[in-house]
Amino acid sequence: MLNKLRLQLQALFFKSRLEEELDEEVRFHLERDIEENIARGMSPEEARLAALRSFGGVDRVKEESRDVRGIRLLEELWQDLRYGARMLRKNPGFTLIAVLTLALGIGANSAIFSLVNTILLRPLPVREPQRLVSVFPTILRTGEARALSYPNYVDVRDRNDVFSDLAAFHIAGMSLSRNGNNEIIYGYLASGNYFEMLGIKAVMGRTFTPEDDRTPGAHPVAVLSYASWQKRFGADRNIVGQTVLLNNQSYTIIGVAPPRFNGTEVIYAPELWAPMMMLGQIEPGSKQLEQRNVASSYCVGRLKPGVSAAQAESALTNLMAQLGREYPDSNEGKGMMLTPPGLISPTVRTPFIGFAGVLMLTVALVLLIACTNLAGLLMARAAGRCKEIAIRLSLGASRAQLVRQLLTESVLLALAGGGVGVLLAVWLIDMVMAFKPPISIPLLLDLQLDWRVLSFTVVLSLLTGTLFGLLPALQATKPELTPALKDESSLGGYRRSRLRNTLVVAQVALSLVLLVAAGLVVRSLQHAQVMSPGFNPDHVVTLTMSLSSQGYDETKGKQFQQQVIDRVSHLPGVKSAATTDILPLSLGSLDSYVFIEGAPPTRGAQTPYALNSRVSPGYFQTMEIPLIAGRVFTERDREDAPRIVVINEAFAGRFWPGQSALGKRFRYRSADGPLVEVAGVVKDGKYFSLGEDPKSFFYLSTLQNHDETQTGLTTVVVRTTNNPIAALATIRDEVLKLDPTMPFVEVKTLTEHMSLSLFPLRIGATVVGGFGLLALLLAAIGIYGVMAFAVSQRTREIGIRMALGAQGADVLLLILKQGLTLMVIGLGLGLAGALLLTRLMSSVLYGVSATDVVTFVSVTALLGLVVLLACYLPAHRATKVDPLVALRNE
User: Fold this and answer.
1) Domain check: are 578 and 517 in the same one?
2) Are residues 274 and 295 in the same domain?
3) Three-class DSSP category at 680
4) Rounded to an integer, what distance in angstroms lies between the CA atom of residue 457 and that of residue 438?
5) Is the pTM higher than 0.85?
6) How far is residue 220 from each of residues 212, 237, 254, 256, measured CA to CA in Å?
7) Domain check: are 473 and 554 in the same one?
8) Who contacts 807 (Cβ-Cβ below 8 Å, separation ≥6)?
9) Is there a domain that residue 231 lies in?
10) Measured between alpha carbons, how far is 655 from 663 in angstroms, rounded to an integer?
């Protein structure tokens, strides 16, 4: 077998030498037969003729010998490739247009696939990533998934029988002090088994172990990420053993993580890891390690060998049912959900998959339009080679050989388009990477053209070249031989015309579907930009600080907040100022159970909850949130005054429908908490996203609830009468006069803050809109090309008509009628397809229906105008045909 393989390789790569050996062998056998014949008494000439008759045809024998080598197909394929390359090189214009057309479609698909690959397909750089799962408790009644509380994590870790190990981590912001500078950075507080479970070894020093995570506050150690070590510490080789100040406490750096390791979440890049038991020091005053009803720990587990994710999910749901019976107030009615790690939460994963699906569908439509262009180009090119194909068929070439030859050329075009498409994909990836969400948390989106993306590109190129080159190849190899050899026919017959018309209809339909999708996304963005968020973001600046990380206790924190408000309020150009613990339309919001006074008792998952935040007096005036009834907080609402709240309309309508909510009372967080009385009702707002349905929300006064601030952050909101950007520096300096070491988490205008909610939609509008315009351009070029080719095929007909008295307007109408008929059919099919496919986009649209009439009508009119123009230009040129020249050429 090895000897045969060796001979085949020699035959493939050393063909000329083997041919010489074959010639010598044939000559040897002939000469031997001639000598034997002469020995029998024949003359030399008779001996030679007899030897040739006995030997058979020399060429036939050579072909049989070549067949024995077993590489005839490879040799023919190599010949086809060389011939195809020569033919493409002889037609550089056609080749360039075809390659660029395919590059646009293939490159767009490769770029978007790299996003899908990064988020969903690329394995994490950890040990046995296929056995890792993220663990989320769910509310069985609603299916909503959340993080685990730390006490629940400990119970699940110790009592499950489906994981070989289970680790937890908590995302935390902290103040890093070095060389007199304070900065807010973000990292993980992780359980002691975190690195061991993932199989991660430090490149310098060590990682922390379970021994470092047994006693709260006992081991202030940290592991740096590789990027943080390089960026913040200058790649100091002696970093291990050095100390840094985190929240004004000394931490020892014990190691540096590997370069590619950024945890288990592919969209987040922590700067360091510290033991979970340091939570009370990183977030001073936090009791989350003891609170079962505070869900802030994300968990990743390693499945035992032989245990599937479905089996583990079922077993963990039963375990949660046990915890629900043991701790009904916090765990009753909860189940468990397992997902692949990488996107922090199912609330992020599900929208991303939907968004990625829309993008993949978009670029698939772009590729289909590009492929219909390719098919049209190949049809036109085949028409010019009709006589060549007829001659080759007449000389004995089989149809299969010609189809293979034409397919080889189309595959070469597709591979060349794929190669250029890779370069285009690199550019598109760089462009996408330039879009950064306006947040301080270090998000990570490491798009790469790895082997998966390159394999996808190669396979896509081969499929494109084969599938969309096959039909033109089959049509091209069925000419009518006699007319074709006489140069009296081409591929302009009825069947070919029908195929070209089908391509035009397909281009129009596909373009309309894609343009409608792009139009809906753009309209959604326009609607979201003018949508009322329940407050007025104009002329408002925000400064977010972490008081707890600077060691501020309750008394000092209250004093600092009041001093900031007093000083900033008296600055020139400032209308009002206030503080809050969380801005609306942030990445998250606090929620608490609600226990209405006089309502039947509830517990566990049956207990209703509402979002909430803590605000200072003046907040509603600063944010310009309209008051519907009652009053808002004042300076009199302090700790010694009755505890009051302000609720929104959705809260009032949910718990006291048809009644006045003023004076009503409820408890929050726990059934034995203090009663609070509703003092006012304000307009509903947007709290998570602009597209959300109205949510129940209540506001607490920071003067009465400072110790309950759970975010650890304080945001100062300031309404100015002049340019807010110009006022930012002045306000920031005023805060630093109170505490020169205060690190700011974020400093921005409220309009900039709102852009975070619009960021996904803006990205979608940019990408889908850009691809929509690309599709429009490709469709216009393709339709123009097909119509121009159709006109060229009818040159003789047009010449005869004009010779018989037809006017230019008659010819123009004749050509336009053909194009408009195809356009109407394509628009009709496109509208039907768009009505079906755009329903899949409902979840990513804000305030716009998936069947928005304005979008459908305007996009249809735009595409119709472009198609009309693409048809008009060839038709207008047809009116300039000289009848004598046309008839003479024929």
Assistant:
1) no
2) yes
3) strand
4) 32
5) no
6) 9, 21, 10, 16
7) no
8) none
9) yes
10) 13
